[in-house]
Structures are given as structure tokens and as C-alpha cells.
Amino acid sequence: MRGTVTPRVTGPDRPPTEPENRTMSQSYAAEEGTPAAAPVEVPHGAGDAVLSIRDLEVEFPTQLGVVRALNGVTFDVPRGKVLGIVGESGCGKSVTARAILQIIEKPGRITGGSITLRSVGGETEITGLSPDSARMRELRGREIAMIFQEPMSSLNPVYTIGAQIAEAVLIHQTRNREEAHKRAVEMLRQVGMPHPEAAAASYPHQLSGGMRQRAMIAMALSCNPTVLIADEPTTALDVTTEAQILELIRNVRDRAGMSIMFITHSMGVVAQLCEEVIVMYLGRIVERGSVDDLFYDPKHPYTRALLRSIPRIGRNRKAPLEVIEGSVPDPHTRVAGCPFHPRCPEAIPGRCDTTVPALSTAGPGHTVHCHLYQGDDETGRTEPGEDA
Amino acid sequence: MNEPLLEVTGLRKHFPIRGGFLRRRVGEIKAVDGVDLTVRRGETVALVGESGCGKSTTGRTILRLEEPTAGEVVFHHPGRGPVRLESADARMLRAVRPHLQMIFQDPFASLDSRMTVGSIIAEPLLINKAAAGRALKDHVAELLTLVGLRPEHANRYPHAFSGGQRQRIGIARAIALNPDLIVCDEAVSALDVSVQAQILNLLEELQRRLGLAYLFISHDLAAVEHIADRVVVMYVGRIVESGPVEQLYTAPKHPYTEALLAAVPQPDPRVRTRPKLLTGDVPSPANPPSGCYFHPRCPYAQPVCAAETPPVRQVGEDHRSACHFAGALPLAGAAAAVPPAQATS
Amino acid sequence: MTTTPPPPVTEPPAPSALADAGNGAATLPQWRLMLRRFLKNRLAVASSVVLVVLYVCAILAPFLSPNPYDQQNVDLKNASPTAVIWSGGPAICSREQQLDTETFTYEYRSDCSKPVPLRFFGKGYEYKLFGLIPTDRHLVTVDKPHTLLIWGADSAGRDVFARSMQGARVSLTIGLLGVAVGTFLGATIGTISGYFRGAVDTLLQRFIELLMSLPTLPLWLALAAILPQDMSVTSRYFLITLILSLVGWASLARQIRGKVMSYAASDYVAAARIAGSSSARIVFRHLIPNASSHIVATAMLAVPATIIAETSLSFLGVGMLPPAVSWGVLLSDAQNVATVQQYPWLLIPAALVVLAVTCFQLIGDGLRDAVDPYG
After folding, report:
1. Does residue B274 carry a pLDDT above 60?
2. In the 8-state DSSP scheme, what is residue B312?
3. How confident is the model over B144-179, as pLDDT tens digits?
């Protein structure tokens, strides 16, 4: 995605992202800023994608038939940026995240495609590893960390926050218990926990939702992973807390140059946080582009309709919202052709309902899977006659 | 349009914290701590706030799903005149209930999965003997059509429907008795983004057609701005600000309202805001701070805020704020987003 | 960024997602869906078949048994199961009892030179089918004076097979009946406790806790010991059932209370209240139907414990007493190791207990999973 040239407006107070200068032992919290040393070497050369996902397919055999949760998903996670994955229920965004860590819930399994991780240790083909192998366990947490929507489900209620972070550090980094504990407190301080020592000594249920999410992020960052996958980490939080966590994630990216894959259903969060966005629908990617492309020049009818249907503050008061007719199909139904065609106002009969649209390029770094952009010419860059 | 339909004064709901072998009361959670609000006929009043602020409990207490601890709830019954809901006996309640209905957040939990859609919608009609036999069937079919479903859906069970369709079924049940007021408790929060707009539009259309008033309880400030006429902001069981939506959004008079509006992530990458972040967490209603409950997090807090509970002040027409410095602070409203070009089409 | 078009994939035409999925599963009531899920559980279905066979055996006990269950015969003391041979049809060898004068045990010498053929649907002793129709037909008989002992004989020369089938009548029904009474009590008290809450709930819960904290076996023993020794078999049967259910309802009430509480707090109950439903309507129209599947599953899981309880009581000599027959009574005959070593067929009732208990357990698990697939 290096070639992407987008007129993105950067906040004046935000330093430009410098992947080369990332140092881990810095504070991510906005109010504190006492950087310490210990720079980490970042490898380059194997492209600037930290993760490359190619033609990923995931299936869930169920009593009512096989659910094809992912139908050939291809994308890269760029280094040092926040890649947003946005979509509605059943679009496969969470399954994608879980597939990368090979923690898909049984009986789901990866049935095709590849996931390549490019980290300090070189390239790793994740789909080639057994989910229970030592290497896979080492990858989880050490190379790829994940934070979840409900931190309570991933924090163990019978251990203190500090002990759990220290445990992660002990597994992947040091053998020294005292050092691990110090690191745990340090991590909590870095994620803006108000009283890190007290927080380290408390149990998950003693913290509020926002504080638990901070603890979760501290744990995820404690081993200095290459990629951070965030699966709707703010969905269960209130707006004021969500704003705090988004700010924390921005700081993680800016100060550490972390590569982040951020899964959400909120267009507002995408707009405020991400550099690049993937829009998914029913197990497929429908559009990918820079956040500016996506919001100001959306190509796929689904993206366009989604943007028009969300209520925005300061506009559309009391006027009917534009809607997407129908609802997301049941996961058991298989839609032939483009997954969106039954709800698409611009669907081309005989084409959209039979053939899965191939990838076409709409601009630098902007791609779309839609028949409207696949003219007869080979370039596949045809613009639709009427632009919205 | 301007006659009041529902007047709530000093409503309190305290939940006991029990402990010990005999489950004695050892403390209490002041979930709703003195709420005043008015809903006029045919208007939409939104009750907003963060989780645990007591907005849902307020709605449930008004409908007597929870017994109020104190306060007055007056419903202006079209035939009987003012009815004191908070002290109404079972008989009176049953007579008034058809006029007050509710739509729930979770479209999956709010429908009895053992009943067909037809019998779910027919239940209020049957109980209140509003229709029977052939007329009942026709009425159910009519209601299904009204909410955008088809009459033959009556024979199906809720599991055959998507979240948005289930919410439509819940709406059909709520309007079956031709109510005056519907409490919408986070009615669109659990739905997919693309379905939320459908339901919001449906609610507005039904309001126009049936002259409904809504008490729209939500944490989604964008949806609230879209649907509401007036907005009431709650924080830890108390109302901090209330006023017409336009005024409240563009010129909030309470620091908490300002913080809430600023925290909403704008769906526009060219308007990237980095809001002044509130520090700390929402206090527990079991142990709220002194004075103004918001003072520990308030960037404008003065010593007086910790000492005294702020009085409710009139700060504009129909606009009230419970802040010691209401009107004196330079508070910013919601950033009027520059609409992305494509969205104006 | 270059276009990397994969060849357009053409999938077989599938029904459009928005086209209605027809009326297949859509109009199926909840219990039909549960039944579907249950039928997918092979172990549970197999267990159901086994249990049905056991109950049919219990009902048809006298028809299946070649000998009356209570007929003593000193000539057949501890006789081993009769071997079935083939001689132009299934047949048995004639046997003679001999006393081993060294060990003072009886031995049976088979003489297969004159095989005795098995007769199907032949005449035997008289009995009443289903307790109503007098008949003397049996599934298998042999000509007198020979005796067919499918599972051998006990120390009084009584047919173990006949006694096991007869015992199944008591053991299998006392389990169901005990649980039925317990479930009724538990469901009623659990529903009251869970729906009305407050002081009633607190009192009932403390009482249940008290009941559950008592060790069950001594309690049963004490209660059973109060029963007079000379009461009729039928009244004893019902009193034992009552004793078993009196202790068993408490845990059922607990579980049902929990379910009712969660249902009572659900939105659809709130919706029913707003619609103007009375408490009775909410309880009978919403809470009980929704809890019923859980009640059935929980009850099914309680049956094995009751069967075992009856067996234990009878084994200890305070449950059903001879001349009544239950699996526990039969097992009390096999109390010493020497007997078991010499006459292992006396343990067949124990195998039946294990079989029945396992089946109930598997069905209960199957029901629970069918009712609440994600629980």
C-alpha cells in the first residue's frame, strides 16, 4: 500500500507516522510522556505488508448446512497503519481475525487460502501451522496480539490483572518474575491506567469496562507484538470511554508504529481512526481503499448505501434516512453471484446474480468488487456512467 | 400538540443492596434520583446518557415495570383525564396500559419464541378484549402490513426472522392497542447499521400516521438527533440538561452534554476531532460523589461544585441545565460536520 | 496496485437470500425444532430405544417369563442359566440336580441326549395381561417337568429372569413416579419462588438449603424405617415413592426457580405485563411453557438418582420388602461375595440398573442439549 496517495487530513497535533523510529517503552497515554530507550529493530524488505491474506476461506459445518463464513478474502495489513475492517453482522470480519490467530471456534475451520506473517523472525505461513503447535502458540501474543469486545471474557477472573500481564511476559520474554511484574505495572502505566500499581493488584471484576479494556490492551502490548488485532474493542463501551480507548489506540500506532487491524461496525470509528478501510459483506470484501476514498468517493453500492443510511449529527434532521432495503441474509443461505445483489438497487440482472464480481481498480490503492466497474475493456477501470 | 401527555415529577427508584442470611438491606443504588420530565402529545422526547445512568430504569419505572420509590407520574388519559400512574392499583393500571406501550432493545429476547408471530401481536388485543375471531385475524394482518411485513408471516415463529424483522414485530405488538405513548428502550441499538435506518424511518412514519408520542431512550446521539424533538440528558440517575434538540446540540449548557457530543466519532475522515477527553469513569450510583455528580470529571469544576448540588436553571425557552455555571461557560456544541459530497445525493 | 482478477467464479444458482425460505422451518414450533436436535443425538436416541424395550419388558413381564417370578423350587436352588442348543429347532437339555457331598452345593448335570424343544406362544401358568386379560400364553415355554431358566435361579430356586422383569415394574416406575411427584412439587414451588420473589422466596430458599444440607441416605433410611413392616406392597410402594420425591424436589425447585427468574426478567414478560396480562396469564402462558422443556430435561436427569435411591433402600432392606420384587430387593439376595462368585447371574439386576440409569442419563443430556444448545 506504499503507493497509495491520498489527500488525508492529519490532525495538527499528530506527528507523522515513523515506523523506523518505533520504541516500545513509551507511554501511550495522552497525558503522560516520559519516553524510555530500547528501540526495536523493524525488518524491511518483504514488502510493507505485515500480514498478507490470500483467498482465505473458512467454513462452519452446522446442523442446517455448511456456513461459508469467508469466501476467498484477500488483503494486506500495511505496516504501521490502522487498517479498518467494517461490516455488519455475518460479514466475516471477526472470523477473519480469528482465522489469523487460528482460534476459530469449533467446528469452523480454514478450508483454503494463505495467511503470511512478516515479522522480525522472517516470513511465516500461518495456515501451514497446526493450531496447537508450539510455533502457533508463540505467534499468539508474541507476534500477533488480539483484544476483544468483551475484555471480561479474555481476562481470567481468579488472577490479578498484574499477574496476568506478567504471565504473558513470562511466557514470551523474560524468565524473571520480578522483572515481569515490573513490566506489567509499566505497561499499565503506559496505557493510561490511573493507578498502575493498584490496578495491577486488582481483579478484573474490580475494574470498570473502560479500565478492563485498557488492561487488555496493556496485556496485548506487553510482548511488543508486530500486529495488533482489535475486534470491536469499543463496541461495549460508552461514547466517552470509547473516545478514551480510540485515543489510546491512536497513540499506540503513532508512538510505536504498531500495525493495527481494527474491526468495527461503526463508520464513525472508522472515519476517526483508520488510514485504510476494507468493507466486507457476507464473507467477501466488497471494497478497499484509503479512508478518504471510502468516505468521499465510495464505489460499491453497498458502501455508498451504508454511508447514506447512518444518521449524522448536524444533518438530516427529521428527514427520512435513506435505507438499504431488506436485511443481511441468514448465514445459511448461499447467495449466487455478488453477495449484495439481492439488496442492490443497481444490480444488473443476469450478471450480478450469477457471477461473483472480480477485483477492479478504482484508483491508487482503491479497489472494488462490483460489476458496475467492470466494463468490456481489460483495464477494469471503467467508471460508472452516473456518479453519485 | 402542546398538551402534556406524561408528566413525571421527582421520580426516584432506589434498588436495595441486600446481604446476609436474611437478605437485609445494607445499602441502596439510586438508579433514578429525582427525575422530572414531560412528554407532550405526539412529540418525541429522547432520554440519553451512558450505561448505568438510569435512563432505562426511568422508562421502566414510568410504565410500572419497576415500582417507583418516590415521585409522581401523571398520565393524561384521553378519556379519564389525569391518572396517577405511580400509585394506580392493578385495575386502574390495566385500564391505562393500552395507552402506554414499549419497544425493547433486544429483538430476540422480547418475543416469546414459543408463540407464532400472529399470537404475539394478538396477545395485547386478546387480553384487552379489543378484538376476537375474524376481526382479530384481520387486525393482526393489518398491523403486520403497517410495519412492513406480510400478513402470511403471522403463522411463523420468531426464529424465522432477522433482527430487523423481529423489531418490526415488536413494534406491531406495541401499536396494536393504538397507544398514545411508546417507550422505545434502545430500540435500534442492537440492530445492524443498515437496518437501523429502516426502523428509525418506520418509527417516524408511524408517529405521523398514528399521532404517537415517543420516549426514546438511547445512547446513540446521532440517532437521537435524528428522531427527537426534545432531549433529556441523564448522568448517574439525575437529569443534567434538557431542551429542544437543536438548541441542546448546537449550544449545550452543561459540561457533560458538551463532553458527550464531543465524544461521538464523526463518520467523516476530514473532520477528525480529538475531543477533550473526560478523565475517570462514571461513578457508581451506589456511592455517588458529593455535590454535582459530574464534578470529579468536569474540566470546569469549581469548589462549589463539590459542595452543593446544582439547582436546575432555566437557560432558554424550554431549556434547563443543572449546572452551577449554566450559561456562563464557553461550551461547544456538536461540530457541524461538513457533509461528504456523496452523501448529499 | 494492479488488477489481479481471479477468473470470475460462477456458482451454482442458489435461492436468493431475500426470497423467503419457504414455510419449512419458519412455521415449526419450538418443540419441533428441539425434537429435531434431539433426534440428531444418536446416543440419546439409542438410549430411548433401549429404555422403551425395558419398559415394554416390564409391562409384558409375565408373558415373557416362562416361570412365575415367585414360584420357589428346591430342585432348582441356584441353578445356572439353561443352555440353549439346536436340535431341529431351539431346544434345551434336560437337567438333574445332584448334591455334591463334599462341598454341599448342588450341581446340575445336563443330559443332551433327549433335547427338550422350546415352544413359542405355548401355554404355561395363568396370569392377567396388562392386569386385565386372563391368559396363559407365554413367549417361550418348555414342556413340564423341564424348566427354562433364561438367567438361572436364585437360592430359593426362583427364576431370576422372571424376577428381574417383575422387579423392573417397581424399579422403573418408582423412578418416574418419584420424579414426577418431585417435579410437580419442585416446579410449583420453584415457580412461586422465582416469580413472586421477596420474603416467600427467601423463606423457601432457606428451607431448601436446609433440606439439601441434610445427608440424603440417612434421611431416607430414617423415613423408610418409620414405615410399618406389615403394610401392603402397594401402599409401601407409594410411600417409598413419596419419601424419594420429598427429598428430590428441593434441587429441582432450585433449578426451576433459576430458570423462572431469568424468564420473568425477560423482555417478552415485560411486554406481556405492559399488554395488561395478569400474573396468572404470565405464569401459565409464558413462564411455564418456556420453562417446560427445561423442567423435562432436568426431571429426566433426576430419574437415575431416584432409581438408584430405590435400589439402595431396597438393598439395605428398608425400601421395598419381600415378597415385593424390585431390582434392589433382588440385589439384596446377592449381598455376599461368595454367592456372587459362585452364582454370578444373581448380579444381572445390577446390570439392568446400570443400563437403565445410563440410558436415562444419556436421554437427559440429549434433552438438555436439545433444549438449550448453547447453554
Report:
1. yes
2. P
3. 999 999 998 998 888 888 888 999 999 999 999 999
* One domain, residues B206 and B259: no
Q: What total of structural domains would you count in chain B? A: 2
Number of Cβ atoms within 10 Å of the Cβ of C82: 24
Query: What CATH number should be reported for the domain holding residue B171?
Result: 3.40.50.300
Total domains present in chain C: 2
Residue C38 lies in a domain: no
pLDDT band, residue A18 (cuts 50/70/90): very low
Q: What interface predicted TM-score (ipTM) does this complex get?
A: 0.84
Residue C44 lies in a domain: no
Domain that holds residue C258: 161-371
Q: Assign 3-class secondary structure to C240-305.
A: HHHHHHHHHHHHHHHHHHHHHHHHHCCHHHHHHHHCCCCHHHHHHHHHHHHHHHHHHHHHHHHHHH
Which residues in chain B are closer than 8 Å to C274, comparing Cβ atoms?
63, 65, 97, 100-102, 124
Burial, B327: exposed, middle or buried (Cβ in 10 Å; 0-12, 13-18, 19+)?
middle
Q: Which of C21, C206, C268 sits opposite B111 (nearest CB)?
A: C268
Closest-CA distance, C363 to chain A, in angstroms, reads 19
The string of pLDDT tens digits covering residues B228-271 is 999 999 999 999 999 999 999 999 999 999 999 988 898 888 88
pLDDT tens digits along B215-226? 999 999 999 999
Strand partners, C90: C86
Which residue is closest to A72 within chain C, CA to CA?
Answer: C6
Do C77 and C183 lie in one domain? The reply is no
Residues C324 and C354 in one domain: yes
Residue A336 and residue C40: Cβ atoms within 8 Å?
no
Residue A262 has pLDDT above 90, yes or no: yes
Q: Quick check: is C7 in a domain?
A: no
* Residue B171 and residue B212 in one domain: yes
Considering the domain boundaries, does residue B233 fall inside one? no
Q: What is the pLDDT of residue A286?
A: 95
Partner C contacted by A331 (CB < 8 A): no
Q: Nearest C-alpha of chain C: how many angstroms from A31?
A: 39
Does the CB of A371 have a partner CB in chain B at under 8 Å? no
Is B47 contained in some domain? Answer: yes
Instruction: Kindly indicate the confidence band of residue A24, based on its pLDDT and cuts at 50, 70 and 90.
Output: very low
In B, which residues are within 8 Å of A292 by CB distance?
269-270
Provide the 8-state DSSP code for B99.
G
Is the CB of residue A152 less than 8 Å from the CB of residue A90? no
Q: Residues B95, B12: one domain?
A: yes
- Cα angle vertex B58, ends B285, B193, to 5°? 100
Domain that holds residue B252: 238-335
Final residue of a structural domain among C95, C127, C158: C158
Nearest to B281 among A210, A311, A316 (CB): A210
Using 50, 70 and 90 to split pLDDT, how confident is the model at C302? confident
pTM across the whole model:
0.79
